[in-house]
Amino acid sequence: MATIKVKQTGSPIRRTKDQRATLVGLGLNKMHKVSELEDTESVRGMIRKVQHMVEVLEG
């Protein structure tokens, strides 16, 4: 299955609890960390929710 690499570029400080939980769900919890995930609709929805704090490297 296809994969997507996502890099955290923004800090979760002063963000809502659900945005922080979404970052953790994506496997991100520190600045500049990269996580490789399966390319599914649910993952794309999570990325869309925190698009101001992440950068898609591939996909």
UniProtKB/TrEMBL annotation:
Transmembrane segments: none
Record's keyword terms, sorted: Ribonucleoprotein, Ribosomal protein
Gene Ontology annotations of biological process type: translation
Start and end residues of each Large ribosomal subunit protein uL30-like ferredoxin-like fold domain: 4-54
Cellular component per GO, a single term: large ribosomal subunit
The keyword Heme is assigned to this record: no
Superkingdom of the source species: Bacteria
GO molecular function: structural constituent of ribosome
Oligomer status and interactors: Part of the 50S ribosomal subunit.
Family per record: Belongs to the universal ribosomal protein uL30 family.
Protein name per UniProt: Large ribosomal subunit protein uL30
Gene this protein is translated from: rpmD
